[in-house]
Amino acid sequence: MKKIAVIGTQGVPAEYGGFETLVENIIGANASADVQYTVFCSGKDYDERLESYKGAQLKYVPLHANGIQSIPYDMVSMMRSMRGYDVMLVLGVSGCVFLPFVRLLSRAKLVVNIDGLEHRRKKWGKWTRRFLRLSEAVAVHCAHVVVADNKGIQDYVAERYRGKRAELIAYGGDHVMTGVEPAREAAILDHYGLKAGEYAMSVCRIEPENNCHVILEAFARTDKPLIFIGNWKKSDYGKSLRKKYEHCVNISMLDPIYEIETLYVFRKNAGWYMHGHSAGGTNPSLVEAMFFGRPILAFDVVYNRETTSGQAYYFKDEQDIIRLLGEKLDGTAMHEIAQKRYTWKTIASEYERLY
Q1: Cβ–Cβ contacts within 10 Å for residue 13, how many?
Q2: Over its length of 355 residues, how does the chain's per-residue pLDDT go in tens digits?
C-alpha cells in the first residue's frame, strides 16, 4: 500500500478553497485500495479535530494554513512527513523553498501542484511576489513530478524552465450536482426575487485580478439582474466596489454563501455565468459552473480558453459583456466538456497513477 502525505491545504472537511475541495474529493473518490492518504490540517482553523475523514488519516499543525503562516505551516508538515510516507503531495508553492532539504533527508517521492502562478497575482506586494517566484522555481527543480491543472500552466513551465515537463491534471466539479427538490428550488428563487434564465451570477474572491469592477460596471449599464457572491468586506477593493454599486437596483452583492442547495439553485437557473479571473490555471468556480450547461462569459485569457476548450464566450472589457448579453448564447458545450474532462473519479485516478 502506498502512503500519501497531503501538504499545503487548510485541511478537510473542506471549508476554504480549491485545493481543499480537491483533497476532499480525491480522498472521497479514492479509486484504489492500495492508497492510504494522510492529510495535514491546520489546528488553528478547526475547532473539532477529527482523527479520520473519508478513509484518510488527519494530522494537525498548530499554525494557520494561509497568509504569512502558510510558509512555516507547509515546512512543518513536510518535516513531519520525512519518514513513513511513499509520496508527499504538495499543493501550492508557499513552503517549497524547503524542498531541497526534503530531497536530502527523505526518500519520499515529491509530487507538487504549483497552482496558478501565485507570483503574478496583483494582491501580493513586490517582495512577496519575488519570494513566490523563487519558491515556484525551487518546486519545479526539486519535485520528482510537477503537476499543472491547466495547459496554459503546463506550457508556462516548459517555456520558463527549459523544457521541464509538467503532468496535466485538471480540477473536478461534479460534486456540485447535488440536486434540489422542486419546491425548495422555487422557494430559493422566490426568496432572492429571481426568475429562471433571466439573471446572471458570479462567485469569486473579490480581488482586482478577478475583474469584479469590469463585471459590475457592465451590469450597472444594463437592466440585467446580477447576483454577485464574494467576500466584499475582506479588502479595500471589495469595500469600495460595494459602496459604488450597492445602490444599483439590478445588482445584488451577496456575502459568501456556503449552503450547497442555494448555490446549486443559483447556478442551475442562471441565464449567464460570469467569470472574470485573469490569473491562475483551471479555476474551480469555472469548472463547477460548466456542469450546469449555462452560457459562460469568461475573461479572455489563455487559462480560461483552455479550461473551456475555446467554447465559452470571452470578454476583455465592459463593452464586450454588454454586447454578449444582448446576443443569443448557448451553454450546451460547457456541460459536455465538463462531463468529459472534469469528473472527480477521473481526477483521482490520474493522481493515483502518478504515485
Answers
A1: 15
A2: 899 999 999 999 987 678 998 999 999 876 566 899 999 999 999 988 999 999 999 999 999 998 888 899 999 999 999 999 999 999 999 899 999 999 999 999 999 999 865 545 566 567 767 888 898 999 999 999 999 988 888 998 999 998 789 999 999 999 999 999 999 999 999 999 999 999 999 999 899 999 999 999 999 999 999 999 999 998 999 999 999 999 999 999 999 998 889 999 999 999 999 999 998 778 889 999 999 999 999 999 998 999 999 999 999 999 999 999 999 999 999 999 999 999 999 999 999 999 9
Burial 110-144 (b: 16+ CB within 10 A, else e): bbbbbbbbbbebeeeeeeebebbbebbbbbbebbe
Opening angle at CA 101, ends 109 and 113, nearest 5: 45
Tell me which DSSP letter residue 309 carries.
Answer: T
Residue of 90, 41, 39 lying closest to 62 (CA atoms): 41
Give the Å distances, CA to CA, from 175 to 120, 140, 168, 182, 339: 29, 30, 21, 19, 12
For residue 13, give the C-alpha cell: 472537511
Distance CA 178, CA 207 (A): 28
Strand partners, 251: 226
CA 43 distance to own-chain centroid: 22
User: Residue 53 forms beta bridges with which residues?
Assistant: 56
